[in-house]
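Private note to self, pasted from the team thread so I don't lose it. Backbone tokens:
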């Protein structure tokens, strides 16, 4: 299905963006995709794959390019015909390609889309949890196409990384998130970054309403 893009997920807001090879490459790729192979991002859940996919679409929009992001986890409710004519766009992003492992029709449709995008010199970014050879696809030709992509494996963030990322996102909201408060959130709530950012949004609104700083007692009160 088509996906609404989060407002704050950009290439520059990705943790350690200036040091992340995938971010550096994607910025360049979106400016000169013609003649370059598609991009394949993979890594464990929580490694930031979807963030980069959303961010690529945001970057494309800022450059005046047309784009479409499709999440494939609900592919059973959709028709492969959804991919028809997508090569008319400047950028196509496919999230959770792992989901179609048991569907040869979808695999064939993505194989055909891949070829059309390359022939037209358009940008294609594909995201999965594992390398192409571990997807369990029946269509060997699709696997070989995915192996020909420019690939990046994303690593999971450590707790220290998550702490710095949360504090970075807090500063962007005009909040001061003390280290002890960040550690409390990591120790007592979900360690998933999206869940943590959702909590941060809730706390941001609470500080405006109550005109209070972020302290552990205040957080306990708001999140209880």
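Design output:
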């Amino acid at each position: 299905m088509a996906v609404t893009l989060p407002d704050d997920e950009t290439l520059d807001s990705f943790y350690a963006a200036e040091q992340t090879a995938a971010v550096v490459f994607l910025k360049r790729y979106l400016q000169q995709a013609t003649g370059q192979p598609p991009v394949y991002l993979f890594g464990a859940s929580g490694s930031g794959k979807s963030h980069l996919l959303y961010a690529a679409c945001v970057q494309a929009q800022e450059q005046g390019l047309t784009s479409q992001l499709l999440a494939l986890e609900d592919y059973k409710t959709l028709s492969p015909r959804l991919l028809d004519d997508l090569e008319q766009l400047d950028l196509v992003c496919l999230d959770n390609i792992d989901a179609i492992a048991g569907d040869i029709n979808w695999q064939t449709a993505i194989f055909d889309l891949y070829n059309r995008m390359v022939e037209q010199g358009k940008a294609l970014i594909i995201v999965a949890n594992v390398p192409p050879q571990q997807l369990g696809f029946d269509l060997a030709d699709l696997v070989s196409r995915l192996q020909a992509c420019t690939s990046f494996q994303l690593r999971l963030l450590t707790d220290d990384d998550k702490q710095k990322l949360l504090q970075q996102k807090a500063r962007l909201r005009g909040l001061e998130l003390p280290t002890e408060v960040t550690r409390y959130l990591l120790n007592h709530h979900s360690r998933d970054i999206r869940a943590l950012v959702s909590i941060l949004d809730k706390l941001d609104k609470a500080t405006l309403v109550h005109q209070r700083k972020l302290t552990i007692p205040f957080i306990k009160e708001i999140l209880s």
